[in-house]
């Protein structure tokens, strides 16, 4: 396996040089976190938190077990070591109004002049950590001299290592998309063009970029939600698997989306609540990793994400996108799938335990779909759950769309 340093050479045509970055949380901050974790209580027994089917939320038993592991077995320094085994960078991106944002990204840069740049965008409550399994596959398979791609995984503005948003003005997903496009251009991807890939909020960022900027040549998504069926869709076009997916979406809207309304209508309040206790974040975010996956992820993987959120103090600044969701009055908007048509080659990976897996016929109404892959298993965090399957889909998409 090639070392991280081997994949860290910035493309020669980059317009600015990002600074190599190594993550190391201050020891005092880490000890303060451990103290807060130890002192944070888990709620007493109730009827609701004893229900093993989790219909009322995470169980007390899961919270106690997770807290015990977090306190006594989880090692943040090992997570840092894993993160730092990949090339990480910080760079300043200046917006159109002169505002400068400090943006983090991790990357695998190729030495090939014909390498295809692909920029991966995470969502909430995810982070760039979602894409490290795919990057691990690639650095085991390739060397910098034969890697066919540049792989870029930024921390979205407002999230974890790119947490600082302007506090004197409103910030939207369109602003995030613009900054991410500027990041791609700064790395020299404006000449040959680049591709975007995303799930959850990252799918919205991808869609805006693909629909807006000619330098973006196409997109691959694993989340493409629409609130309502597009006009003219025949019921005969919906497969049995897709019908189950639509029913899952309806169930999610009825029993699983209250968190989003809280994010969208009272972000300041929930920001204070979840910044007060690691256990509060464990319950709020841990529930999503339990409910939105097909098979349970390793607890270490879940805790790495939650710990990163806590240590970066990024929860309050990570939920701004939901205000746009719940400000909409015309439907079809959840996480941006507002029928914003993308007339560029598009790939779509369908995972059945996604929150809102839409049928292929729906996807074809808002994109120029060239590759569609339906999977028998997998959920919302596809890059974490099914990195091999998702990467295989992406690679086929690139070959079909740009052969």
UniProtKB/TrEMBL annotation:
Organism name = Aaosphaeria arxii CBS 175.79
Protein family (similarity comment): Belongs to the peptidase S33 family.
Query: Looking at the record, which segments are called Disordered?
Result: 1-20
Name of the protein described by the UniProt record: Epoxide hydrolase N-terminal domain-containing protein
Keyword Hydrolase present in the record's keywords: the answer is yes
Q: Which UniProt keywords apply?
A: Hydrolase
Residues of the active site = 200 (nucleophile), 322 (proton donor), 380 (proton acceptor)
Report the residue ranges that make up the Epoxide hydrolase N-terminal domain in this protein: 19-131
A GO molecular function annotation here is: epoxide hydrolase activity
Q: Which InterPro entries match?
A: AB_hydrolase_fold, Epox_hydrolase-like, Epoxide_hydro_N, Epoxide_hydrolase
Q: Where is the composition biased (Polar residues)?
A: 10-19
Biological process according to GO: epoxide metabolic process
Transferase as a keyword of this entry, yes or no, is no
Pfam families noted in UniProt: EHN (PF06441)
Which residue spans adopt a coiled-coil conformation according to this UniProt entry? none
